[in-house]
Specification:
31 strands, elongated, alpha/beta, 7-stranded mixed sheet, single chain, 57 helices, 6-stranded mixed sheet
Length: about 1500
């Protein structure tokens, strides 16, 4: 207070509130409202307002510091604020008279004057008197705010005279008015301002108020203010008016009548109430408490305003009402849910109409209680009713309270349920009756619209009863049945005509002529015509069948779970004890490995440095990693050591992994060559089958001497080599380190080794070697048709019931071994049971001593498949035909069975094969002896069979080992080689001819897996049948590997000039069979968009072998043959392609023929198909290859998914022998000179890049200009939208998305279906994500012009060379804006999609780098013919990679993102299944050339992102 006196302070006024006071006799039962008026003014908040104040006190309370033995109360002060802060301060004094609660007489005080004189006193004094708050304060002053009256004295500045205008309590108003009059006279003597406050106007008596007003009007300047302390009306006004009278400088306040002021106050209250109620309604949980909610709302202005006006008590009541409403609403909803769920419960428990039709509701309740499912539908509560228990809070308990069923609503639901069952019963009866009516109408065909049928059933009684929806549903069901039946019959028909399809190599694709032939033959069949109105479905079935024929697997088998391969594996797994014959114990219990053997390979002492660093971080050769101690055995070896291979693998030391460390381009190149030697040696010598699966880890050493400019190049090249080797790459971590190797690097490398070891035992399936397989004396393949009407147990019972039957080698789930005495010795016979579709891949590629061909005599398709398979089997291999039926009586009773059995026996007679029948009802034929004669025959011919197979394999390996370049991946051979690129977007098809687990035999010599370069080094090639199958089985396509470049030899003699002319003539006559190493112009049958090889590695190089080594373009198997100092004769191609035998003139031996040339039945069947479509051709033209070309033959091409209109059977190179007869050469050159000219013409076109024609159908959509496919409203082509939407909805995380190729048949089928109906749903087609991705790429490949315009290519390349990243990206952004608006929108859409794909790289392994490799040729369609282009291929790719990574920046004004870490972007090969198969050696890349890297440094893609 003293500090404040020094500051200017606002004026202070003291107001004394007076009125009728005294004993009950004087003032009645209640006062006139002085205390309430003071309370409301001083503490206006509702919570601080006390409506009850007593004047009857005890002596103690009267003597307390609050009353302080005075008959007046100090209520405190109120600061009134103005525009400039506190305007004034008003101290409030209430003059009253306290009554003793004992004597009921006024308490004695120091001032003994009567109330009237005492109340008019203008000076009051009371030392240490405390502010009065409420009655409860008396005696408990310490619990309330303690504030003293200022200085213990006050000078009164004005009086507020209170007159009660309510009815009063035992008080006469006249007496009060008389008292007031006397009091007023006394007050007037003080010359202080006086205002009358008419109190309790909320209970006002009108004439009382008028008397008060009359009283005031008789006095001079006496103002009456009508107040109500209860409702806070005009309380502040009366005090403000009094202050104005004290200070005339203030504006005179307007005195508002009570009613008007009341309305204004109530309006404030109503508004505040509405706002508060809305605030409360935000609470939706009826479990909420007032304490929790009030704490949350206490700072909200609406909450505070309501509390001030109405108080906490009312607020709490409002809240409680709201909570109760929420609870009742919740109960209502729960009840509604229960009632709605009751019909379902009744359908479950009381679904039998016959049982409940006559039951009352109470009887039905008793029946329900006895049902076993009663507890799952209803809950019986201990306490009722249910809405007063805690069951209402169990929202997850959907069971209906049983006591709820006693309501009328539940009974009504039951009655409706009974009526529904009655009507539903009638409805079902009528629907079935209508279904039978439809079945009687013979002309209803599959696919016939309902509108064409309705007129024939309009008068049917059942049709009239059921609704339109029911009738359409019944007809749709009827259609599904007849369509399904027609499709099954159509599929069966296709199998019956198996000769039409099974005349090509696996993985081939039919041409236009072949498709025409197929349609011509099938169109005569009634089952073909039955689907006339469902032509698209029929075409889809046909394409699906063709796709399966050429790419068969058990997963895609058309018989589904009835596939013979699946059933055989299940039966053998349950019948035989599987034994593990070839597992090594090296990685056994790898999860608990505690010792790690490490081989460290490096150059110039790097290996020893790394070993020393590891030992430095170890303690006694024990290394702590991830909380576990490992004993390390380190073997550092210099890469130049001549004893490298001998030190790597010894009986005492078998490494778990190999660390390959490098610090320069030279050392990296050397490391790559060493790994090549190690893998080649492991695969060749086979000292241990797991050696080929040894884990390699590339480690980059830190450049501690100086900051090396080559570090980015080393990192890039190291990652590149790691990708090709499918091994981890350990980069130098960020930051500066004094040592060459960092602890984090070593730990990362060790974790990689442990992860590889962990998976090796489960992943590496031991490939049987020649030594392993020598355990079997005979290898027999039993073939059966999928879906045949007999059990697998029947055909296997002759073996399984034998005591000499045992399990085959581990991993061969479809094979078994027999020990039988044949002749004089016991023989081991390996029986492999396969479906016909799996056997096709075995027929040529595996050594098989004999075939047991099983067919069902009840099924024509089974015989058709047998004929198709047998036709291509070599006639040197013995065959046993087995017909299966129920009993011998079938032969005499069923004409169809008799015909098929007779045909089988006839074929067996024609080819001198064995024939027998198995009867399901006979036990004799379940004995092994049924095949004893066949086994004896096979044993007799074993030597001849093996000699023939070895001879064929030798010729094949001779061709393969003499390859100049790997064959084109588009060739027709089953053997597949990857294109030379970092990432092939069209890898080998993810299907296997014999399934994932079928591996019969290896090639006769592992040496055929390698080729010698001109320096004598061996490099692996993918040409043996086993490697071929391994690649086709591997759905995860590993990155292809570039071959080591060949070095010309000077001591090779040149070819005979005449022979050279013959070769060149062959090239000229059949240019299309030249391997596609980026030809001079894109071939018509090559899908340019799928060629994702690095152009620098795919150029057909003439220099280097033109003088020394001559290349023949292809043999009939589309293989490149390198001729060196001898004449190489190729006759292998006739094996699988339907040609008659040829005699090899150079070797003087006869090649085996095929059974179709020994059986008139087989040959005539094939001839009959040919004549249907080639009625003008002679037999010689149709079935020989010595002259002319054959129509309808097809090349095994991966390029065209369905139709490849090529003519591959030309003369020249396909002659039986290549001779050096000059006259013959001249005749060949003169015979068709015009073809040579025609073939040379396309090579002159160097600037034309037309998309390849991939379709055999006319399309008004695909291949059209982009501008014709979009509109301003829909700037994205509909097909692109559908494909992207499908991929993002179903397969964004698919591993290898856009890299692993889908089924080409499905890709074309997608486009054909879209051509017919733009609203087609891809989900309904059942196609894979990879097929849709391929169709999307094909769409862009078919565009007349690339999506990225040629006109901007040069600008993009120049801009990519800008070293500053920010400047480069902004320049690229400006170039993109130059795109045609249509191209821009589509480019933005597809890049955005690819960005989303790259964000899932951890699961799909498709980083922006991988996606750009797959997509840049499609989007930019480069000029592969231009040599200048070859030096910029990586820049092209990196441009697209930049667009993908910086998508937000280019198209959405986003920020520039930092490039992800190179190692992070390449997911570690955590799953060894994705690695190269253990027996498939890798080709290493050519040696890295630092000078080439330095020259390309300005255009290095590392700086792009």
């Amino acid at each position: 207070m003293m500090a404040k006196n020094k500051e200017p302070r606002p004026p202070s006024y003291a107001v004394s509130v007076v009125g009728l006071s005294g004993t009950e006799k004087d003032k009645g039962n209640c006062g006139v409202g002085k205390s309430c008026l003071c309370n409301r003014f001083v503490r206006s908040k509702a919570d601080e307002y006390y409506p009850e104040h007593t004047s009857v006190l005890s002596t103690i309370d009267f003597g307390g510091r609050v009353v302080n033995n005075d008959h007046f109360l100090y209520w405190g002060d109120v600061a009134q604020s103005g525009e400039e802060g506190i305007d004034c301060r008003i101290h409030v004094i209430e003059q009253t008279e306290f009554i003793d609660d004992q004597t009921f007489l006024p308490h004695r005080s120091t001032n003994l004057q009567p109330y009237i004189k005492r109340a008019a006193a203008s000076k009051l004094q009371s030392a240490e008197k405390l502010m009065y708050i409420c009655t409860d304060q008396l005696g408990l002053e310490q619990d309330f705010e303690q504030k003293q009256m200022p200085e213990g004295k006050l000078n009164i500045d004005g009086f507020l005279l209170c007159i009660d205008v309510s009815q009063g309590c035992n008080r006469k108003f006249d007496d009060q008015l008389k008292f007031v009059n006397n009091l007023y006279i006394q007050l007037s003597k003080s010359k202080k301002p006086i205002i009358i406050a008419a109190t309790k106007c909320d209970e006002c008596v009108d004439h009382y108020l008028r008397e008060v007003q009359a009283f005031a009007s008789n006095k001079k300047n006496l103002v009456v203010v009508e107040t109500s302390a209860r409702f806070n009306v005009n309380v502040e006004t009366c005090f403000t008016a009094l202050v104005q009278m004290m200070d005339k400088t203030r504006g005179k306040p307007k005195i508002i009548p009570y009613l008007d002021a009341y309305k204004t106050q109530r309006q404030l209250v109503v508004t505040a109430t509405d706002k508060f109620e809305k605030l409360v309604q935000t609470v939706r949980d009826y479990h909420a408490t007032w304490k929790t909610v009030s704490n949350k709302l206490k700072n909200h202005p609406d909450y505070e305003e309501y509390i001030n006006l109405e108080g906490t008590k009312k607020a709490k009541n409002t809240f409680s009402k709201h909570i109760e409403q929420l609870k009742q609403e919740h109960i209502r909803k729960r009840k509604e849910e229960y009632i709605n769920a009751l019909p379902r419960a009744l359908n479950t428990l009381l679904s039998n109409l016959d049982e409940i039709e006559l039951l009352s509701w109470s009887e039905a309740l008793k029946v329900m209680e006895k049902r076993p499912d009663f507890q799952s539908c209803f809950v019986v509560l201990e306490k009722t009713p249910w809405d007063e228990t805690d069951h209402i809070d169990k929202v997850n308990d959907r069971r209906i309270p049983f006591d709820l069923l006693n309501t009328l609503e539940a009974e009504k639901v039951y009655q409706n349920h009974v009526q529904h069952l009655i009507s539903e019963k009638r409805r079902v009866e009528m629907k079935e009756k209508f279904k039978k009516t439809l079945e009687k109408i013979q002309f209803i065909s599959p696919g016939q619209p309902w509108e064409e049928v309705i007129c024939f059933v309009v008068e049917d009684e059942a049709f009239k009863y059921i609704t339109d929806g029911d009738s359409k549903e019944v007809y749709a069901r009827h259609q599904r049945e007849i369509v399904e039946k027609a499709k099954e019959e159509f599929q069966e028909m296709l199998f019956e005509h198996s000769e039409l399809f099974y005349d090509l190599d696996l993985n081939a694709t039919p041409s236009t002529d072949k498709m025409s032939e197929i349609h011509a033959v099938l169109s005569e069949e009634p089952r073909y015509k039955a689907l006339q109105k469902l032509a698209p479905d029929r075409e889809s079935l046909l394409l699906k069948h063709i796709g399966f024929v050429y790419h068969p697997t058990k997963e895609t088998c058309l018989s589904g779970q009835n596939c013979m391969d699946i059933k055989v594996e299940e039966l053998l797994a349950n019948s035989l004890l599987q034994q593990d014959h070839g597992r090594s114990n090296l990685y056994h219990d790898s999860a608990n490995i505690d010792k790690i053997n490490l081989f460290i390979l490096g150059k110039d002492g790097l290996a020893q440095e790394l070993a020393n660093e590891i030992r430095t971080q170890s303690t006694d050769d024990e290394y702590a990693l991830d909380g576990k101690i490992y004993e390390l055995d380190l073997r550092p070896v210099d890469a130049k050591s001549p004893y490298l291979l001998t030190q790597l693998w010894t009986s005492a030391f078998k490494p778990h992994g190999c660390f390959c460390v490098f610090n320069s381009i030279e050392s990296l190149t050397f490391i790559g060559e060493c790994i090549a030697k190690i893998r080649a040696e492991a695969s060749q010598i086979r000292r241990d089958r797991y050696m080929a699966n040894l884990s390699f880890t590339l480690i980059l050493a830190n450049q501690r001497d100086s900051v090396s400019k080559n570090l980015p190049i080393l990192r890039h090249q190291g990652q590149q080599l790691a990708n090709k080797l499918q091994c981890p790459f350990v980069d130098v971590p960020a930051g500066t380190y004094p040592r060459k190797f960092n602890e984090a690097q070593i730990k990362q490398a060790l974790r990689g080794v442990l992860e590889a070891v962990k998976h090796n035992f489960d992943v590496v399936s031991p490939v049987p070697t020649i030594k392993d397989l020598s355990e079997a004396d005979l290898r027999i393949v039993m073939c059966a048709m999928c879906g045949d009407p007999f059990s697998v147990d029947l055909i296997l019972s002759p073996f399984l019931d034998s005591h000499s039957c045992s399990a085959a080698q581990a991993g061969q789930n479809n094979s078994l071994m027999l020990d039988k005495i044949i002749g004089e010795k016991r023989r081991r016979i390996q029986i492999t049971i396969l479906s016909y579709h799996s056997s096709i891949g075995v027929r040529k590629d595996e050594l098989v001593h004999g075939y047991i061909l099983v067919y069902s005599a009840k099924r024509k398709a089974s015989m058709g498949m047998l004929r198709a398979f047998l036709s291509e089997v070599q006639d040197t291999i013995p065959v046993q035909l087995v017909a299966v039926t129920d009993s011998q009586a079938d032969f005499f009773e069923n004409e169809a069975i008799k015909e098929l059995m007779t045909e089988g026996e006839h074929i067996a007679t024609e080819i001198t094969a064995k024939f027998t029948a198995l009867y399901s009802l006979s036990q004799y034929h379940r004995q092994t002896e049924v095949f004893t004669l066949f086994f004896s025959d096979v044993l007799e011919k074993k030597s001849m069979i093996e000699s023939s197979y070895m001879s064929d394999s030798t010729r094949e390996s001779t061709h393969t080992s003499e390859d100049v370049f790997p064959r084109s991946p588009r060739g027709g051979s089953l053997d597949y080689n990857y294109p030379d690129s970092e990432d092939d977007a069209e890898g080998p098809p993810p299907y296997s001819p014999i399934g994932d687990d079928v591996r019969l035999l290896p090639a006769p010599s592992d040496r055929s897996k390698y080729r010698l370069d001109l320096e004598g080094n061996e490099y692996p090639v993918h040409s043996t049948p086993i490697n071929c199958h391994d690649h086709e089985r591997n759905h995860k396509v590993p990155p292809p590997i570039k071959p080591k470049p060949l070095v010309p030899r000077t001591n090779v003699k040149k070819l005979d000039p005449n022979l050279l002319k013959t070769i060149e003539a062959g090239i000229g006559k059949n240019p299309r069979k030249q391997p596609s190493r980026v030809p001079a112009a894109p071939p018509e049958d090559t899908e340019q968009s799928d060629n994702y090889a690095e152009p620098i590695d795919t150029i057909y190089k003439h220099k280097g072998f033109a003088d020394d080594i001559y290349a023949v373009p292809e043999d009939s198997q589309n293989r490149i043959i390198k001729v060196r100092n001898s004449i190489v004769i190729n006759t292998q191609g006739e094996e699988e392609n339907g040609f008659s035998d040829r005699v090899s003139k150079s070797h003087g031996e006869r090649r085996p023929s095929k059974y179709k040339y020994k059986s008139k039945t087989l040959f005539s069947k094939a001839k009959s198909y040919y004549r249907r479509t080639h009625s003008d051709a002679s037999d010689d033209e149709a079935f020989t290859t010595s002259k002319g070309k054959r129509k309808g033959r097809h090349r095994g091409s991966e390029e065209d998914p369905l139709l490849s209109p090529v003519e591959t059977w030309k003369g020249g190179i396909d002659n039986p022998a290549i001779t050096s007869d000059q006259e013959l050469d001249e005749k060949k050159m003169k015979k068709k000179p015009h073809k040579v000219k025609e073939d040379k013409k396309p090579k002159k076109k160097t600037k034309t890049f037309n998309p390849p024609i991939r379709r055999n159908w006319e399309s008004n959509y695909f291949g059209m200009p982009l501008q014709d496919l979009v509109t301003p409203e829909k700037p994205i082509p509909l097909f692109v939208e559908k494909c992207v939407q499908f991929i993002e909805d179903t397969g964004l995380c698919t591993e290898g998305l856009y890299r692993v190729s889908g089924n080409k048949t499905d890709q074309d089928n997608i486009q054909k279906q879209f051509d017919q109906d733009h609203n087609i749903s891809l989900e309904s087609m059942g196609v894979t994500v990879n097929a849709v991705a391929g169709a999307l790429k094909a769409f862009f490949a078919d565009l007349p012009d690339p999506l990225v315009p040629y006109s901007l290519h040069q600008e993009l390349l120049e801009t990519s060379k800008i070293m500053d990243k920010t400047e480069r990206l902004h320049e690229l952004k400006e170039i993109v804006k130059k795109f045609h608006p249509v191209n821009y929108e589509v480019f933005k859409y597809i890049i955005t999609h690819l960005n989303r794909v790259s964000q899932q790289y951890k699961t799909n392994y498709m980083t922006a780098d991988n996606l750009s490799i797959c997509f840049w040729p499609t989007l930019m369609r480069p000029d592969f013919e231009n040599r200048e282009f070859l030096s910029t291929t990586k820049i092209h790719q990196s441009v697209i990679e930049t667009f993908i990574q910086q998508c937000q920046f280019f198209f959405y004004n986003g920020e520039i993102v930092e490039a992800p870490n190179a190692v992070a972007c390449q997911p570690p090969p955590s799953n060894p299944v994705q690695m190269v198969e253990p027996m498939v050696p890798l080709q290493l890349p050519p040696p890295l050339q630092p000078q080439l890297i330095q020259s390309q440094l300005p255009a290095d893609p590392l700086g792009i992102i």
